[in-house]
Amino acid sequence: MDTAAASLTPLAAQGLSSWVLLLLDVALWLATHWYWLVLALLVASAAGEWLVRRLAAKASQERMALELVPASHFDPGFEEIFRRGVELTRASTSLPWWAPRRSKSVRIRLRADGAHPLVYRVEGPAGAERLLQTTPFGAAVHTTRGAALRETPHEHEVRAEFILRGNPVAELREVPLVPDPLQPLIDAVADVRAELGDLAEVCIDLQRAPKWALRARRFQVLQRARQDEQRETARTWRLMHQNSLRWGDSLLGELEQLTTRGGQARGREMGRVLAPPAPERIDREEVLGKLAQDDHLVRVQILVRCASNVEGRAYARLSRIQAGFDVFGGSARWAMRGLRIGPWRLGADRWPHRRHFDTRWDTGQCRPPGANWVRINELLGLLKPPTVHSRLPVLPVQLPTFEMGNRSLLLQGWYQSPDGQRRQIATHADETLFGLSLGKAGGGKTELALAQAIAYAHAGGGLLFIDPHHDSWKRGAPYLAHSAVVERIARIDLRGQGGGVSSWNPISMHHGRARHEVVEDVVDAFASAFGWDDASAPRALAIFTEALTVLTTINAAACREKRIDDQATLFHIRPLLTDDAFRAEALAAVGEDLDSESRAWWHTVAPTLPPDAFAVILNPLGRLAANPITRAFLGQGRGVYDIRWAMDHRMVVWICTAGSGPTDRLLVALIARDLLRAGRSRVDTPEAERVPFRGYLDEMITLAGSASGSLASMFEDFRKFRVHLHGMTQLLGRLPQSVQHSLVQNASTLATTRGSRAAVTPITDEWGGYPGPAHVAALPQYHHYASFTVKGQRIGPLRIEGPHLDDVFADLARPGKVSALEAAADARAQVRPVEELTEQANQQLARVRDLLSRLASASTTSSSTSLTKQRDYQ
Prior knowledge:
Layout: H1 2-32, H2 34-60, E1 63-70, H3 78-91, E2 106-112, E3 119-125, H4 129-133, E4 141-145, E5 156-166, H5 183-188, E6 199-208, H6 211-249, H7 251-259, H8 262-273, H9 284-288, E7 297-308, H10 313-325, E8 332-336, E9 339-341, E10 344-346, H11 353-363, E11 373-375, E12 409-416, E13 422-428, E14 434-438, H12 445-458, E15 462-467, H13 471-480, H14 483-486, E16 489-493, E17 500-501, H15 515-530, H16 538-560, H17 573-578, H18 580-590, H19 596-605, H20 615-626, H21 628-634, H22 643-648, E18 652-656, H23 662-680, E19 693-697, H24 700-717, E20 723-729, H25 737-746, E21 749-752, H26 757-766, H27 773-777, E22 783-790, E23 793-801, H28 805-808, H29 818-828, E24 832-833, H30 834-842, H31 844-873
């Protein structure tokens, strides 16, 4: 055995030496032909990069996008946003195993294109759609599938990539959530204009931290810290050595050597020189900073692109976006990547970075520089859509610029955008269904309503303006004195100061209405004015209903006989209830036209009623009759006022009521109920053929006191019939509860001028507390806060400067033609002298009696003829 082992040892040694010689030969060959090795490495590297790019491009094609639209009350907390960030980082890994690291990312895209103030999109792997759709924000954020973005060429484009500068392990500044951290970026894109081709996009790509890259980064940071510590130690040693040498050569050093023994001095000197400070042990946690822990650490890539068709606008916007990112800066900050040489920047816009930037932009691949490591809590301001604490700009596509003569737009006032530009904004008329304007007297409520009404009238629209004080007519008349408006305008002045008045018969039948509808409208108007109901005044309602039933039956007969001017009026209720002869004539004349129940009531119930039972009805009618204006206005058989006809023919109707007394309230209640009736009657017209009509109700406290039921029903029902109302009041609390609730609930536009805190609080509460009552109370005259409804979404509240007629419509003023306008408006309303109409009203009872006698004789003749024919037949 020993001999065999000894014989194998030389063989093993010979084989080992041959391998060593072979390796030496290979090493010598590589040293001589090194370029082949380099070429092989380059080929392998290029092949690997090509394969990775192909796989990354394939994985990037399977991406989806979600658009997040926050509600107006969206106000997330720290924990909600943090959880969203965790979801985003988890979603970035929802790709097949073969997908390269660069394609495993989630993108947050902030886009401003002039069509929307700021679009917030989340783009990620298709497999993460379910995860991304379920957000911690709940119903406060509406999530929809994002459509593909259409890229259009622009004449000028700038690109930029932001990287972390400063201390690479320090955290960004902790930005509070109030105000919204996105506000600087929102302000940076506030002046984007679609007509100029403006576009601004910020893409924030998130990627989970790779373990190997994190370890390599930590090693680099620790090595740099150790090197810095070693350099500092060496520097300290050199300084100490230099100081020691200077001490020995100094005067004090020489004195010390003279006073001490030389050996001891040299020993101390050598001790100073030969005792360098020991290097301090570095603190790993302190050195690594935010890189010390693995949890919630991500790599971030921020890409920005701005474009415009106007030179300079894109670059200026990029500078503002850069300033917006400065908000997050502290020991570490976001800065644009690249080298600046004078006026030029060698960055993402130039070779060789341009192509790399475009690839990442188009595919969503994340390849940030090594320093872009952050924790999720550092990015909270970017991980959610704009909150309630942000101020989004209002773009022309949301609130268009007002155009005179465009009937589809309603003037709202002057709006100043964040870039300082002022423009007259408007709302879409078909979306502005109801409006409420609140504020103290002289704040600008009526001025705004007049501006809207005047512009709408000049555009050919029909409207009704109820003015309790006549001031609005005097204010707006100079701007309405144009031929296009004069042909359609009618004024009904119930004050009688001009010596004339129009006419109206609420119970006339020549318009073809059903009798029960006429009776119901008038009864409801009286009940609303006096607070009648079935519990408090059942007898008054019954008497009044039966009396109107008889009178409307008489009027229907008068229309059949072509005697429209001989119809009964409200003032004939008194003789019907108190004059036995007239009542007998009326009941005999209507005959079979009156239904059996009404005839039975008059023959059985009416005779049993005491005389004082009629006082509750006769007293208000007596007040109406005692006033010459109301007697002249309501005492005509054939009335001129017909608001339904005015609606259908785009008329401009101005009603100036007299005041706020009991008689005036009753008259206003009748007008309001007739307006409700006219609006509802449009059900007989197909919806597409209903002509839009707007009503402006000034001083709603005066109107609502006697017509609360009618006004509440208007704000609830008129939307279906294309009748839109705008109410103005000083105090919302003075309105009846039913009117308040219906108006605030259905208002498309809410506005308030300056006023006391208690007065404006109901409106500011509807806005969620901002602006607060203190902000509103400090508004100057003609300024107001307002919110609008656009495509079902609330816009605002915005601070707006209300229009002033002298400024907005200065070129329309025709003060010299006001007299001609008033004459035309009175002629259209067929205004006649009060004395003439009063005399005609006094004679109306005689005409009604003559009609009744003719109807009775015709009925008798008809009965006699019928009997004769019956006898002849027998």
